[in-house]
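=== Structure Prediction Worksheet ===
Name of assembly: unnamed complex
Input type: mixed (protein and possibly other molecules)
Chain count: two
Listed entries:
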Amino acid sequence: MDPKIDDYIWENRERYTREAIREQLVAAGHDPAAVDAAWDRVAGEPAAPTRPIGWRPRGREFFLLVVLGAISMVFVWADEPYGAGAIAPVVYIFLASIGFAIGKWFSIMVDAGNALTPIILLGLVAIGGAMMAVVSSTLLLALAVAILAGVPALLLFYLRGTNPNGAGMVGAAIPILIWLAVTGTCYAPLFARLGGG
Amino acid sequence: MFPVLARFGPISIGTHDFFTIVGLLAGFALYYRALRRDRILGPQIALISVAAVLGGALGARLITSWEILDEVNAANLPVTYLLTHGPRSILGGLAGGYLAIVLTKRALGYRLSTGDYYAAAIPLALAIGRVGCFLSELPLGTPTDLPWAMTVSPDAAAAFLRCPGCDGPMHPSMLYEIGFHLAAFGLIVRRGPLLPVRGDTLKAYLLAYGVFRFGIEFVRGNEVQWGGLTGPQLVLVPLVALLIIHFMRQLRSGVYRMPQPLPATA
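=== Predicted Assembly ===
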């Protein structure tokens, strides 16, 4: 074992390719077999350094915005048929809560170094969502779950390291905006309430 | 034209979908093999891969969806139609997948560049996927009288809403692309990483493909959208510009001059 080889690999392995590092070492007169052996040794150490992020569960901003969004739904959809004004806020709060729970759980698992379980679950959800989307009658439901639960979960997960409070606010606000923009059914009641329809 | 590859009772397997899935599987097999060789295959990589597929799927549907926005509005369809029936673009798939990888790595705090492990996988996947396009999509390209031009039957052309030039010989533009991807695949497999910096071989391939695809669009037969350019060309302008800026920065920083290791002692 030559520490010069190990050190060179360790110092450069994040920036340069294995092949380029090997070429440099062999050109400097090192034994190719010793270089390969050193690579296996060094690569066996923690290959992808991760920075611990740590989830700080601050759901106050998230749920405050969700409740405000739900209250606004009551007014916007008050005159809609089938009791939409009462059902939509409940569905929204339910899906947003699921999104928050998934985002929190996902963050805890990944930060603890156990990403396999979330991956399997994500794969199953993706397959289930795709199957729902294929059947046109459940397309709207698949979209509702994806946008109102999936988007906050992902936003909370992605933004947790930079700004947990901001993650909560963005995680709650973005899905409802996407939902309003994407579903044509929402334009009519919204415009009617704002005096445009 | 073979839009349907096989039928099993009520279930039919679309040619395009079949080759897309085979291409993805072949690409991922190659990717994981390379990661396993370098002993960096772990759960985090799997999570990044899932994000890449989801980001790619969304990007493929959305990046050129503005092309049919007017039709969707005119037909009073919900915007969700873009997601379910919008045009699919491999450029959007690449851009969406790339963005998803970057965001997921940042979220995970994963610093190691894994781009080069995709460098052989992506051209292989695209070459296989393009076979599906070639067998099921029209027009093949713009009209031409070159000796290798191809024609399709009037029945096949009638199955497409828009098929300019399908009544005569056309450029087999998908075959040009398959040739490009196979050449890139062969070069990368034979030579290994083309550049010493991690991730730059993939970026070099993407830059080469961007430039090639920009040129191919002139014989592709896609609708001109603005300024004499097709939708994919308009998307390619900023993407190629970003890649050029990246390589200019890399050259300026001198990163391609690797530090010298200490010489071996006799």
